[in-house]
Amino acid sequence: MKNITKGYINGEFVTLHGTQIFNLINPTNHQPVGQVTLGDEEDVQRAIAAAKTAFKSFSQTSVATRIQLLENLKQAVNKREKELIEVMILEYGGTRQFCTMSLQNAIASFDNMITTLRHFEFQRKSGNTFIQLTPVGVVGIITPWNSSNSFICSKLATAIAAGCTVVVKPSEMSALQTELLTACFHEAGLPKGVYNMVNGLGNVVGTAITNHPDIAKISFTGSTVTGKQIARSAVDTVKRVTLELGGKSPNIILEDADFEQAIPQAVFGAYMNSGQACIAPTRLLVPKDRLETVNQLAKAAAAHVVVGNPADAATNVGPMVSEKQFERVQHYIQVGLDEGATLLAGGPGKPAGLEEGNFVKATIFTNVRNDMRIAQEEIFGPVLSIIPYENEEDAITIANDTMYGLAAYVTSANEARALKVASRIDAGRVCINGFKHDPMAPFGGFKQSGLGREFGVYGLEEYLEPKSILL
Q1: Which of the following is catalytic: 91, 244, 378, 454?
Q2: PANTHER family, alphabetically (predicted)?
Q3: Contact, 434 vs 412, CB < 8 A?
Q4: Do residues 348 and 334 touch, judged by C-beta distance below 8 A?
Q5: 99, 208 in Cβ contact below 8 A?
Q6: What is the CATH number of domain 250-432?
Q7: Collapsed DSSP state (helix, strand, coil) of residue 345
Q8: Same topology for domains 2-245+447-470 and 250-432, yes or no?
Q9: Are the beta carbons of 223 and 229 closer than 8 angstroms?
Q10: Could you report how far apart the first and last alpha carbons of the chain are, in Å?
Q11: For residue 9, which of 68, 60, 54 has the smallest C-alpha distance?
Q12: C-alpha dihedral over 29, 37, 156, 26, to 10 degrees?
């Protein structure tokens, strides 16, 4: 069992002023794997002071210097990729498939930002005016537990590219992962104060970061409820805010699609990251007159979903991150039954032989109405709702009938038709004919799925302020 007692402030691991202890529990078997000491307001103040001091010089660094730092970070994280994957499986319970992909994305985020930086114009002209894009200042980075290190790497890479310094508050449930990642950053030789990290609770450390006047910007990934709280607090000091929040992503299967391929793909897609993914396509919209065929295909696909030990390469769905999250998913499964949806696969309780961990059965409801809670509220677990539609127009209406707008998916034999449908979906990212990722394309949500964008040029500009100089 590992005992984590330090944060990372001004280029070194330091003992925290906070004394509260948080227990780290393996979600696969409920065995303790560590303890972490949580920081407090005083620790946050020290971290912000270090970042503020470092910003004075770091904001003036050249593009070449920042590119070299990003390259150093990439090499340091890449060197310990296997360790980072294993600790993520242990602490988070993510499947080996997902954790491997997540770490690969984390490493690639440095390369992606290097590519962006090489072609980015920090000095521009608009009319007769000289425009400088200047770093916004000290950035508070607040990340969730469902892909912790990947989020930290991506946000840090963007901040460094912009010339910003950061104070990171990761999820307290990700402390083992964060400590190892921070060791990588330390080995990379970042200038003192550029990266600072304080473990702690959201209502203590997160609040202290959000309320501090020396934090110029908040970059947050997490729930919509917490995002709203951060936005409200940030208003007092008019902080810049980037929020990547929840989702209830529709997956529209048009009637001309290859159902034999599209439906199994849809089922496995809904269970990405064991269902604990904001972009998971958890609403499957299908033609009403094909519902029986869809039900048969979906049920057959669910039978091939492997729920089990996340360390096994064949596992598709691991445990929920905590008992609290397990209970949340169980509650929604019962809600689906109470609302009158038809249970097609899975259901309440744990799979046989997996009683010791936070495991949920791979669950599918069909004959779901879009006004049901299981179709409107983010469950964050392996629960798929199949919703029949009358025609294409009805499918679009159902897809947009949600407070969320993070991601969406459209499948059709006719790409031009799919593109036309995609253009009418209220979502920040729409994938056509499969699950795709482009780390250079802007990522973020419409409606209550967030504010601002991440990745590439659009993400970098969120960390910069345009200054007009009239000559």
Answers
A1: 244
A2: ALDEHYDE DEHYDROGENASE (PTHR42804), ALDEHYDE DEHYDROGENASE-RELATED (PTHR42804:SF1)
A3: no
A4: yes
A5: no
A6: 3.40.309.10
A7: strand
A8: no
A9: no
A10: 63
A11: 54
A12: 0
φ and ψ at 83, to 5 degrees?
A: -65, -40
- Is residue 99 part of the annotated active site? The answer reads no
Q: How many degrees, rounded to 5, is the angle at CA 264 between CA 262 and CA 269?
A: 90
Q: What is the pTM of this model?
A: 0.97
Confidence of residue 438 (pLDDT cuts 50, 70, 90): very high
Which tens digit of pLDDT belongs to each residue from 82-121?
999 999 999 999 999 999 999 999 999 999 999 999 999 9
Give CATH for domain 2-245+447-470: 3.40.605.10
Q: Which of 278, 431, 454, 462 is catalytic?
A: 278
State yes or no: is 244 an active-site residue: yes
What is the three-class DSSP state of 341? Answer: coil
DSSP 272: G
What percent of the chain is helix, strand and coil (3-state, nearest 5)?
Answer: 45, 20, 35
| 11 token code pair | 């280029």
Helix (H, G, I), strand (E, B) or coil at 183: helix
pLDDT level of residue 394 (50, 70, 90 thresholds): very high
pLDDT band, residue 15 (cuts 50/70/90): very high
Report whether 262 contacts 269 (CB < 8 A).
Answer: no
Task: Give the pLDDT confidence of 395-409 residue by residue, as tens digits.
Answer: 999 999 999 999 999
| pLDDT at residue number 157 | 98
SS3 147: coil
For every residue of 102-113, DSSP letters joined together read HHHHHHHHHHHH
Residue keyed to tokens 């310094």: 165
Tokens of 95: 């499947």
Q: What is the pLDDT of residue 456?
A: 98
